[in-house]
Design brief:
Helix 3 links the parallel strand 4 and strand 5. This protein folds into 2 domains: 186 residues, 3-Layer(aba) Sandwich (Rossmann fold); 136 residues, Rossmann fold, CATH 3.40.50.2000. By secondary structure, it is α/β, with parallel strands linked by helices. The chain starts with 5 loop residues before the first strand and ends with a helix. It contains 12 helices and 13 strands. The chain has a 7-stranded parallel beta sheet with strand order 3-2-1-4-5-6-7, with helices on both faces. Helix 1 crosses helix 12 and helix 2 packs across helix 3.
């Protein structure tokens, strides 16, 4: 039997974030490899519930709050005795820290993943200093840290002070899901956004750009759900583009819509390694993205693939959109997404850590 026979991970909800989606893809690969996987969930309801892999054992807390997950994790790890604990993203590292505080040396090896950029675009000077101080403590409670590209690994190693303990493993790529049909798109040129309707994603930048786009018939479609739905719809109406902005909600499989769109846009303040860009390029659709992470330039590595603009350069954003809406502009050749072996590479890491513990 391999050393890491039993893997435990956790998530607050299945509401549709990229961190949780990647976790479910990894869990599917781990169970397919014959490992036991336990997933602790605050709430199992949400758009990603249908993607929960068969064979994964779930422990439901019945409480969506972060503090409930943090408080419960040490008790549950004691009870089910996993060989390794996987923390799927930055948002969840406080639970990993509390696990180490409560269990000390009795805790199994803990592996974390750097899912967001070390420097966040939404932070002021004080918040940024506090965030970097927190990242600097991660080496005290994480045994290893995984980053998804070389540039993000270098930034993560500096920020967490985990020299020699950061490994590069891409997220597993998206695969077509059985059942879902393509999200309906309006006629004409479509600027497509895919992601939650939350502050980090800054969809307001796209809505603000739409009135200035040269193609006055172009539509903006954002596939996602979140608490800013009303505010975004109101902003579009106030700018006179309410009829051109469509918010159809979360869609389980956006790949076909990406292939049909004129371009895919991501205008976030900060990201880790945005899978939506890789997914769009994998179907030959150009991308327009803000410089929200060191990984963006790694993904959009050539001008033929898309355009990268500064965070708050509204003029450059409009120009980038206009470039890809010109009739007959060449679309990029499909770029295969990395990470097909991600689940196996994680298992190799887990086995090495457990064998050495």
């Amino acid at each position: 039997m391999p050393p890491a026979r039993h893997i435990l991970s956790y998530a607050r909800t299945l509401d549709g974030g990229g961190v949780e989606r990647a976790l479910l893809r990894l869990a599917r690969g781990w169970t397919a490899a014959g490992r036991r996987v336990t997933l602790v969930l605050g709430d199992a309801a949400g758009p990603l519930a249908a993607e929960l892999p068969a064979g994964v054992e779930t422990i439901l807390l019945g409480d969506r709050r972060e503090r409930a997950l943090i408080a419960a994790l040490p008790r549950l790890v004691r009870a089910v005795r996993p060989d390794v604990v996987f923390c799927a993203g930055n948002y969840y590292t406080s639970a990993a820290a509390w696990l180490r505080v409560r269990l000390g040396r009795a805790a199994p090896p803990v592996v974390g993943k750097m899912s967001n950029a070390a420097t966040r675009g939404d932070h002021g000077r004080v918040a940024d200093a506090a965030h970097h101080a927190w990242l600097g403590l991660h080496g005290r409670f994480l045994d290893r840290l995984v980053a998804m590209t070389p540039a993000t690994a270098a930034a993560a190693e500096r920020a967490t002070r985990m020299a020699g303990r950061v490994e590069v493993i891409p997220n597993p790529p998206a695969l077509p899901l059985p059942g879902p049909v393509r999200a309906a798109l309006p006629p004409g040129s479509v600027i497509l956004g895919v992601g939650r309707l939350v502050a980090q994603k800054r969809w307001d930048r796209l809505i603000d750009a739409l009135p200035a786009v040269a193609d006055a018939s172009a539509s903006l479609v954002i596939l996602g759900e979140g608490h800013l739905r009303g505010a975004l719809a109101a902003r579009a109406a106030a700018l006179g583009v309410g009829a051109r902005v469509h918010l159809p909600g979360h869609h389980a499989d956006p790949m076909a819509a990406m292939a049909a769109a004129a371009l895919v846009a991501l205008t976030s303040d900060y990201e880790g390694v945005p899978g939506v860009l890789r997914e769009a390029l994998s179907v030959g659709t150009p991308v327009v993205a803000t410089d929200s992470s060191p990984a963006v330039a790694e993904i959009v590595a050539d001008p033929s693939l898309g355009s990268v603009v500064a965070l708050d350069d509204a003029v450059a954003l409009v120009a980038a959109i206009d470039r890809w809406l010109v009739p007959g502009v060449p679309r990029p050749a499909p770029v295969p997404a990395p990470g097909a072996d991600a689940a196996a590479r994680y298992l190799d890491l887990f086995d090495r850590l457990v064998a050495a513990s």
